[in-house]
Amino acid sequence: MDALLMAGGRGSRMKLPVEKPLLEINGKKLIEYALDALEGSRYVDTIYIAASRNGPDTVKWLEGCARDVIVVNTAGDGYVSDMVDAITKAGIKGPVLIVMADLPLITPELLDEVIVLYHEVPQPALSVYNLLSVCRTKGLRPDTVFNKDGQLIVPSGINILDADNIHEEQDDYNYILDNHKIAVNVNTVEDLKICSKLMGKE
Q1: Does position 13 have pLDDT exceeding 80, yes or no?
Q2: What is the separation of C-alpha 27 from the centre of its chain, rounded to a whole number of angstroms?
Q3: pLDDT score at 146
Q4: Rounded to 5 degrees, what angle do the CA atoms 140, 146, 147 make?
Q5: Strand pairing of 95-100 and 151-162?
Q6: Confidence of residue 180 (pLDDT cuts 50, 70, 90)
Q7: Is the CB of residue 156 less than 8 Å from the CB of residue 172?
Q8: Do 188 and 135 meet the contact criterion of CB atoms below 8 Å apart?
Q9: Is residue 23 within 8 Å of residue 16, measured between CB atoms?
Q10: pLDDT band at residue 201 under the 50/70/90 scheme
Q11: What is the pTM assigned to this prediction?
């Protein structure tokens, strides 16, 4: 399965001079953590990266890195718009794993678990969620929370969609986990501190 790493956001909530994908934890950039997870997956084939004018330093870093990835420049008009734009421009076919670049705790094993499950469910799409309670125990304050059958859940930033129908709304399977590794979506300086602290304990 091909993968698309979303790395074209502004990261404006961080209010830092460094673009979010290039922020470092323990001397390693956020985008490198996500790339390592994708490259370590047994089921990920080609890795595409959606970049944009919103992150010129990220684009420059990608151009100079030795990773075996394909960078797709998008308009920088927003997450969903850029995702559709990247998939269309890249010519990706079939199911595609979409991962945000600000998930430094994800692992190849977790991504493999998601991909294997996707092939077992009937829906054309799959979305990964975490329990809100897990986020709260780590001191995280997610922006988006849904109520799913009485459970408060938080989108993780990991999805699989059918690229062949990327312009259409897709029925998705909700994979709900209680895993702190997908709870940390680095959007604020506080998230960055919590993530660094969690890494120090592992």
Answers
A1: no
A2: 20
A3: 94
A4: 120
A5: antiparallel
A6: confident
A7: no
A8: no
A9: yes
A10: low
A11: 0.92
